[in-house]
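Discussion board: Methods & Data

I've been asked by a reviewer to show the raw model output for two of the constructs in my manuscript, not just the figures. I'm not sure how much to include, so I'm pasting the format here to get opinions. Each protein appears as its amino acid sequence followed by a line of discrete structure tokens. Is this the kind of thing reviewers expect to see in a supplement, or should I convert it first? Here is construct A:
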Amino acid sequence: MRASCFAEVLGERIDLTSNEKAALARLEEKSRDIRRGAVLQRENEPSGDLHIVRRGLLMSYVLLDDGSRQILRFYFPGDMLGVPAMIYRESPETIAALVDSEVCPFDRAALSRLFEEHPRVATMILVLSQVERVALTDRLAALGRTSAKARVAALILDMRNRMAAQDKSITDTFSLGLTQEEIGDATGLTAVHVNRMLRQLEEDGLIAREGGRMTIRDQRALARAANYVDRYAGLELGWLPAAR
């Protein structure tokens, strides 16, 4: 049985037991390849399986009445997909692949067994869901209260930090992996406005771009410009239940 990507994510925060690792690995026994642009789950259609991302990059989004798209979240290897849809008959969001990806499907009954047999793992799923909720709240506040430059800067930092959590070799230079249209759909801006903000961040000496790669030149100044808080850092987990 191959190692669990989700167990690797949890293992960065708690010491998993062998039984917990085995239970998580069972969620990833099956796999499915998804081509770039393919839809895994569609808004307002019956909710199906949950998934763990093994490879690639995916996003969730909703379509607005005017036909525009609002990207809600980006998903990286080790993330669990479909948690918001788990409590509804119909999915509240669409999930699609931004690049060629691989996911591992499992049904709600498997998650129910995991919760019953391993309450500490269940609690960590709750923890990560709350981290996502707070991060989404930050972005909601940014859409209404911060400048376009701050929104783009915050997205750059968040994407780099999420990538670095998966790949320890990533430092200040990385491939963002998003088009300007996708950045705009996540920040409430047009692609033209995103391009202008990226150029302004370059002119301010905060980032540099070359050959499809981005370098953060002054992380502290970029974080100040973005009003950015890394919601995956500084977690207090001393209250978790004991492992079974």
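Construct B, same format:
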Amino acid sequence: MSRRPELARRFFDRIEPVHAVTYFAPNVRAALDDLGYRGFWMGYFAARSAPLGRVPAEVVTAIFYNFAPERVAKALPAAWEVALPAAALRAREQSAAAALAGCGVTDSEDVRTAGALLAKAARALPVDGRPLYAANRSLDWPQDPVAALWHATTLLREHRGDGHVAVLAAAGVSGRECNVLHAAAGRVPREMIMRSRDYDESQWQFHTDRLARRGLLDPAGELTEAGRTFKQEIEDATDALGLSALDALSDDEVETLFRTLTPITRAVVAAGIVPAATPMGLSRDDLDDASAHLSS
């Protein structure tokens, strides 16, 4: 049976919550605070960019894509005067594993099986055009099974994210415009994305007007028919690229991965650490279905 792009979307919905504890779990924030990082955003940019090393804020802005340059510049390079990337990497790995343990994700046969399959998938991917994935892949692989599971999901989500950025750039959608388009499509609440990505009303309107001039939004900021088609094409192209994340696995291995990973994701979701509405626009609609639907 051929693999359809929808499989990549369902796979993302399963790996992202496991990775995302690093942004939402209180103990992760505490671990970064303990290093001396000031406030959530300094810890966020330090921890997520740490695999890149001490690169300029402009590089992080380019790779992360949808953040205001001013927001990144408030955190970097100042964070490296507080604690170096190696310390941030240790803190995020250890605290993420502890957060997952708090969700009931501990060393077990399913965790080891899912982790091994995720690692096989993640290690086999090419680095071409995937800077954040490549930086994370260069790191030492954790020995702890739960940390290894988290690390593998991190590689795979950043690989998809790098691909999504490539699709947006090719479509001529800037990092700041993509947030407005995402909200107009109903994937994230406007108020939440404005707050988390630093827009005031005038900035939001500026990017809304730019998209409207392309015929993608109407004067009220709603998607036009052309805009709905355009947005769906972006999502479809991202999913089509994302399918490569599973290229190293046979259909049987993909089925085993979904069977073992889905309950882990459900446990993370049930713990309530990752909110239902996030900038990633996750879906939880089929997390009761642990099949990839590839078996004949």
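Answer (T.O., handling editor elsewhere):
This is acceptable in a supplement if you add a one-line summary per construct. For B, something like: Residues 5-168+238-271 form one domain.
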